Amino acid sequence: AQEALNPEDEVDEFLSRAIDARSIDQLRKDHVKKFLLTFQTPELEKKYSKKVDERFSSYVACTLLVFCFICCIQLVVFPRSPLMLGLYVCIFVLLAAVLFVCAVHSCGGLFPGALQRLSRTIVRSRARSTAIAVFVVLLLFVAAFANMFSCSRVALRDCAARELNVTPAAVGPCQLRALNYSLGTAGPCHGDGPACHFPE
Q1: d(C-alpha 113, C-alpha 119), whole Å
Q2: Which domain covers residue 125, as residue numbers?
Q3: Is the domain of 59 the same as that of 141?
Q4: pTM, 2 dp
């Protein structure tokens, strides 16, 4: 068991931690641009940009995991459509391909030399890895929001009221059943896409 520090040692340790934190903050203020988070001197920025991020393929793997969660949630929330399934399959293939290419450099001699060189040029270049990261984030953005724009925005109750020539307040489950309307189906008002049940 570790011995308890006496009050003087506790104060000294607290002060040394505070001094370290203040010195790191001061170094950040002196050498790093506030909004871009890049070094103010070009020489330091060049040195930093040459540093290889060995965990880049792990980041891409995490984006693939986030994409799988997005797919699961949207398959529960939105009505399934061919556009949704096609979009998710395409994005999954692209993300898996990017992950495969980025992970090849750490697998030794298991893959062809050209593929290993391509993987190394991506991972060891700050500009290329940043471009790949932006591309991957854009794919996640498309996966998260594209389905919302494929849905019809006409309320099911308004659509049924127009068909029955009544007020929307008069439409109930019996009228919808008589018209055979349900969420996710395309009726006369939903020719552009399935009716998505967003909460109001």
Answers
A1: 10
A2: 55-150
A3: yes
A4: 0.64
